[in-house]
Amino acid sequence: MKKAGILNRHLAGALAELGHGDGVLICDVGMPVPAGPRVVDLAFRAGVPSFAEVLDGLLDELVVEGATAADEVLDANPETARLLEDRLPGLSHVPHEELKTLSAGARLVVRTGEARPYANVLLRCGVFF
Description:
Elements (H helix, E strand, L loop, with lengths): L8 H8 L6 E5 L10 E4 L9 H11 L2 E7 L2 H4 L1 H10 L4 E3 L1 H8 L4 E4 L9 E5 L4
Parallel strand pairs: 1-5, 2-5, 3-4
Antiparallel strand pairs: 1-6, 3-6
């Protein structure tokens, strides 16, 4: 058994299969989960695990070359907006409806227990070399 890093076997396996350019949607409990991508639902109860915990854990495991969030997060959830700006330099914003459309092309969806509006981000995987 692993003693460090991501212990959830479904998430660890899904991360190992990602390649350059693949999309990973980290979303709250309110985001519609698109049909098609592999889904790892970590939601246990409202707020557990938090969006910040999941984002930080995934950023420890992934190389990210780009990220997109909803414009609406800026006004509706300034705490998450600051978190995203701090963790993801060069973050781009699109309308929420466009983010939902883009998320359908993700290879992996990771659902958190976050229950605050627009706590969603689409990451684009990079390479480590």
